């Protein structure tokens, strides 16, 4: 049914949101580390 599909979609959406938030945190961490020195480049793959 469409309701089940909507629930599934909402679940996936929140997982994606959490994932994007983690990605942004890692990006900010990488930026702050690289501004302190060359150290941050090593964490670029996160």
Q: What is the fold's blueprint, element by element?
A:
Elements: H1 2-36
Descriptive notes:
It comes from Nothobranchius korthausae. This is Transmembrane protein 242. Keywords: Membrane, Transmembrane. Helices cover 76% and strands 0% of the residues. It has one domain. It is rod-shaped and about 55 Å long. With 46 residues, it is mainly α.
Taken in chain order, the helices and strands follow as: H
Give the radius of gyration. Answer: 17 Å
- Beta-strand percentage range: under 5%
Structural class: mainly alpha
Catalogue the unreliable spans. none
Q: Would you report the number of β strands?
A: 0
What is the overall number of helices? Answer: 1
Domain module count: 1
Task: Give the end-to-end Cα distance, rounded to a whole number of Å.
Answer: 38 Å
> The biggest beta sheet, please?
none
The whole-number mean of residue pLDDT values reads 75
Short overview:
By secondary structure, the chain is mainly α.
Task: List descriptors.
single chain; membrane; mainly alpha; 46 residues; 0% strand
